[in-house]
Amino acid sequence: MGRPRKLNKKLIEVILDKISDSETIREIFETPDNGIDCSWTTFRKALVSDDSLMLRYEKSKSLAVDYLLSDIEHKRKKLEKQLMSGEIDPKQGHNLVNILKIMTTNRQWSASKLRPKVYSKQAELTIKGDKQEPLNIKWSS
Fold first, then answer.
1. What is the DSSP string of 10-73?
2. How many Å apart are CA 42 and CA 52, to the nearest integer?
3. Up-side HSE of residue 99: CA atoms within 13 Å toward CB?
4. What is the per-residue pLDDT for 109?
5. How many CB atoms lie within 10 A of CB 5?
6. Is the whole model's pTM more than 0.90, yes or no?
7. Most buried residue among 33, 54, 80, 107 by CB atoms closer than 10 A?
């Protein structure tokens, strides 16, 4: 294998497209013959040094999360149709539903970590008052 190419605009677009399509960094940089002939280290250094590229990378990751969640919905609808039409017998369907539940839980967890502002279950409220005056909250009845 020859020396990896330097990162260029076209290669960056290919990498960001793959990320948007929910491929992982490992899949992108460790899969042989996928058209990516630069290393993760090279791409990481470019991300760290270029704020614009980092923003595009974060947007691609957000798109990937949305894609993964829509994929679960698509699979759920497909399974529902198969169960309702009798294409899948109930015992097999029960196992498939359980697998879908596990996949859904995993995708929800991933989404909450990758896009916590949108998908996190944690509701956090921070209220800062003035040092001179305490914060007073009153309910009128």
1. HHHHHHHHHHHTT--HHHHHHSTTSS--S-HHHHHHHHHH-HHHHHHHHHHHHHHHHHHHHHHH
2. 16
3. 8
4. 86
5. 11
6. no
7. 107
